[in-house]
Design a protein that fits this description.
Layout (H helix, E strand, L loop, with lengths): L3 E6 L4 E6 L4 E6 L6 E7 L10 H8 L9 E3 L5 E9 L13 H6 L8 H12 L10 E3 L22 E7 L3 E7 L15 E6 L4
Antiparallel strand pairs: 1-10, 2-9, 3-8, 3-10, 4-7, 4-9, 5-6, 6-8
The protein binds zinc ion.
Length: about 200
């Protein structure tokens, strides 16, 4: 891999990259208010492992890692560490990816969705998964309310808001620019997401 690599993910689309342990990836919301769904799969084992938001919540005992804390796999291995959070917007680890059924229920059949966009990236990479894991929803404003309600509000991530992650294992990373356009989640306008990857010094 070149020392630095940019990947621009279009609106309502997905992108992916293989990262080696120690590489970093900055996930940037260039225009603001755009949720980015993120998944990671361990790329170097016969039995596949993947980032598990429930394992992560259990291990860190929080709803979302603080800077310096990690995201853990189904097998409780650290896969990614949050190095920087340059966004005033909360992030989410409670909601699933948007999928075909969600849009059908809202009256929008055959709508682009994060789940299908993830599966497209996995298929292209020849990776088979026994389940579709729930994603990390960056820049998604859906913190639990005091009365227990879970409501997704419009993201307040400003243009250029970003997070920096480090791979703690060799992983296949997938990011989707969330497709929701009938609800304020993405500020009523779906835009793209940029990945800036830096290889670790070798
Ligand atoms: Zn989505």
């Amino acid at each position: 891999m070149p020392e630095r690599l940019h990947i621009d993910i279009g609106p309502q689309s997905g992108g992916s990259v293989r990262l080696s342990k120690g590489d970093t990836v900055r996930i940037i919301d260039p225009e603001g208010q755009q949720v980015a769904d993120l998944w990671a799969f361990a790329a170097d084992s016969k039995t596949i492992d993947w980032l598990s938001v429930s394992q992560t919540r259990d291990i860190i005992e929080r709803l979302f890692p603080k800077v310096g804390e990690s995201f853990y796999s189904e097998r409780a291995e650290a896969l990614l560490t949050l190095l920087e959070d340059n966004s005033p917007c909360p992030h989410d680890m409670l909601f699933p990816a948007c999928n075909r059924g969600l849009y059908e229920r809202a009256g929008y059949p055959n709508h682009p969705n994060c789940r299908d966009n993830l599966l497209t990236e996995l298929r292209a990479a020849g990776i088979e998964v026994p389940v579709v894991p729930d994603p990390v929803n960056l820049f998604q404003r859906s913190e639990p309310q005091a009365d227990g309600r879970l409501e997704v509000l419009a993201s307040d991530n400003p243009p250029g808001g970003n997070v920096l992650l480090r791979a703690d294992a060799d992983i296949f990373l997938v990011v989707t620019a969330c497709s929701i356009d009938y609800h304020p989640t993405n500020g009523d306008r779906c835009t793209g997401i940029r990945l800036e990857i830096s290889a670790r010094d070798r």
